[in-house]
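hiii so um. not sure if this is the right channel but i have a protein structure encoded as tokens and i wanna go backwards to a sequence. like what aa goes where. can anyone help
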């Protein structure tokens, strides 16, 4: 059994078929950025001890006036530093995920921003290789995320990625809406001929009230004749010879009493 016709679905299916598909370069770049985010978070928390020592050294070198010893101890505690790192990681992850999502949707500005972020991570990796990083094992996730960022940046700068973003930009442009057409031409009955506009029986079986009923006894000008087709015969004496029905009524005889006095 065939499904009923849906005009809204039929109008949306061609647009869905013409919508550009996500190229492999964009898909792989998005997956690489997942590796970048995870590697950066691991490398950041691996340096928690280094960050705690750095904060304590800064406070000792520049003592703050009006700050109590309890506040200084709280600010230099490991729990406070870890909380700051968690908040910073959540904030940066949310921003990166948002830019990656817009890139996957085909926004060209997001593609450029994500490429710039990848370049920044690669440059940071280069400086970290020539620096003193503690602990040493924190360099492993940092290198992995840097290589993934480099690969994602190269894929995002490819021609098919740019072409996909441009086509998606064309798809997002507002299109003129055609005027709504009437369901049937103006002035035309949508149901064709009116089935009640004509008599289904052909001619009217009942006589019209405006037509006179034929007199079965003949016309008034010829009282001795009858009209043709009546139950009393035809209207002429010669019709009996032609097979008509003769007039069987007795002729009227004058009353002798009504003729007046007889002449002598």
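sure thing!! here u go:
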């Amino acid at each position: 059994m065939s499904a009923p016709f849906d005009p809204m679905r039929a109008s949306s299916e061609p647009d869905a078929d013409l919508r550009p598909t996500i190229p492999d370069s964009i898909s792989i770049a998005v997956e690489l950025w997942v590796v970048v985010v995870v590697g950066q978070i691991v490398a950041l928390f691996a340096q928690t001890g280094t960050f705690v020592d750095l904060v304590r050294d800064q406070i000792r070198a520049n003592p703050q006036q009006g700050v109590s010893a309890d506040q200084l101890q709280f600010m230099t505690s490991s729990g406070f530093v870890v909380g700051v790192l968690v908040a910073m990681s959540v904030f940066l992850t949310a921003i990166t995920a948002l830019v990656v999502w817009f890139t996957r949707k085909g926004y060209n500005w997001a593609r450029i921003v994500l490429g710039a972020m990848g370049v920044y991570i690669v440059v940071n990796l280069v400086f970290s290789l020539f620096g003193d990083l503690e602990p040493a094992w924190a360099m492993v996730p940092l290198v992995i995320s840097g290589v993934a960022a480099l690969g994602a940046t190269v894929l995002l700068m490819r021609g098919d990625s740019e072409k996909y973003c441009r086509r998606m930009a064309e798809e997002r442009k507002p299109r003129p809406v055609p005027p709504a057409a009437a369901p049937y031409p103006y002035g035309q009955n949508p149901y064709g001929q009116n089935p009640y506009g004509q008599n289904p029986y052909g001619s009217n079986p009942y006589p019209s009230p405006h037509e006179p009923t034929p007199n079965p006894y003949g016309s008034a000008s010829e009282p001795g004749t009858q009209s043709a087709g009546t139950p009393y015969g035809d209207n002429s004496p010669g019709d009996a010879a032609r097979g008509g029905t003769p007039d069987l009524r007795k002729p009227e005889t004058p009353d002798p009493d009504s003729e007046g006095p007889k002449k002598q």
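oh and Residues 11 and 143 are 50 Å apart (CA to CA).
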